[in-house]
């Protein structure tokens, strides 16, 4: 009998080991760094749990989850291909879903692995492992009619101890879109007024949200900023980045910046392998003795300035 012990190494830290034993058993080892962000190994399960004593992991450590089970158990399917008998099973991970009034998202890694053992007579002759990947999103660029632009900083920073100001030193160009991000990666968003030199006007963000299509009215949606403040029902709160004279900008009041953690939309408890579009409604405010145009999060909302417009950018 020939036995192949195969370690399948996948791109960018994705590591899975699959073995087919002489007595007709699968052994599958999944590493915690199989995904970015790191996979929660406690959530990895076979296609069918079946008998927990047989189909549950035989060991889970901080770095690995180990499964060992008969090729005929735990939801394994059997097919015949010519002279070969093929046994195939599937591993996947669970993920936490945050539910909002207009949509649902997740920031947990989504791990799926299909694996096979092929038998010819009494010889195990090959093994195949496959991981499903997310296709890249399609590009789109939709600035608002008042020449308000939403763009993404690329986060590149050569300085040691890089600050929020430093990561806004360079931006993705139009040719870079769509931008691919890993779940929970920071996304550096900037909204700015174009072609204005009046130092007395202030850009105000009213509402920023994300959709799965280029239409700002489409569903599902996920709030990022509400009344200019981080959406409180998000476990990973949006971070507002101050823009003042220290930023080196000629007109700092013409800019607003914030950081979100990357997510994907979920429908019917299934993650959508699609694009994420970011939209913001904006206003231009003139400071006065009674209104300094600054939103104070956690306090009662001031009156909304006039002239709300929208800007959008695809991830």
From TrEMBL:
- GO molecular function (one): acrosin binding
Keyword Phosphoprotein recorded: no
**According to its record, what are the GO cellular component terms?**
egg coat; plasma membrane
ZP domain residues are 19-300
- PROSITE patterns in UniProt: ZP_1, ZP_2
Q: Which domain of life is it from?
A: Eukaryota
Write down what this protein is called: ZP domain-containing protein
Q: Which organism is it from?
A: Albula goreensis
């Amino acid at each position: 009998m020939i036995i192949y012990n195969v370690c399948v190494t996948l791109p960018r830290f994705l590591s899975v080991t699959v073995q087919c034993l002489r007595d007709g058993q699968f052994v599958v080892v999944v590493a915690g760094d199989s995904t970015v962000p790191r996979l929660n190994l406690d959530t990895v399960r076979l296609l069918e749990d079946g008998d927990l004593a047989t189909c549950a992991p035989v060991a889970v450590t901080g770095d690995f989850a180990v499964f060992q089970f008969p090729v005929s158990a735990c939801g394994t399917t059997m097919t015949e291909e010519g002279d070969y008998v093929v046994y195939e099973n599937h591993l996947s991970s669970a993920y936490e879903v945050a539910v909002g009034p207009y949509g649902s998202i997740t920031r947990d890694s989504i791990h799926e692995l299909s694996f096979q053992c092929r038998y010819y007579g009494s010889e195990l002759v090959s093994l195949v492992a496959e991981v499903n990947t997310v296709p890249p999103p399609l590009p789109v660029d939709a600035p608002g009619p008042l020449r308000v632009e939403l763009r993404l900083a690329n986060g590149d920073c050569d300085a040691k101890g890089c600050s929020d100001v430093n990561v806004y030193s360079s931006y993705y160009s139009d040719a870079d879109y769509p931008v691919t991000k890993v779940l929970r990666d920071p996304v550096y968003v900037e909204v700015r007024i174009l072609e204005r030199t009046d130092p007395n006007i202030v850009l105000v963000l009213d509402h920023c949200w994300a959709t799965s299509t280029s239409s700002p009215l489409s569903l599902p949606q996920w709030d990022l900023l509400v009344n200019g403040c981080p959406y409180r029902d998000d476990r990973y709160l949006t971070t507002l980045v101050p823009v003042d004279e220290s930023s080196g900008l000629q007109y700092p009041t013409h800019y607003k910046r914030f950081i979100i953690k990357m997510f994907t939309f979920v429908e019917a408890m299934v993650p959508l392998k699609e694009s994420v579009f970011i939209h913001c409604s904006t206003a231009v405010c003139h400071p006065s003795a009674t209104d300094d145009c600054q939103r104070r999060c956690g306090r009662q909302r001031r009156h909304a300035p006039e002239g709300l417009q929208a800007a959008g950018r695809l991830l």
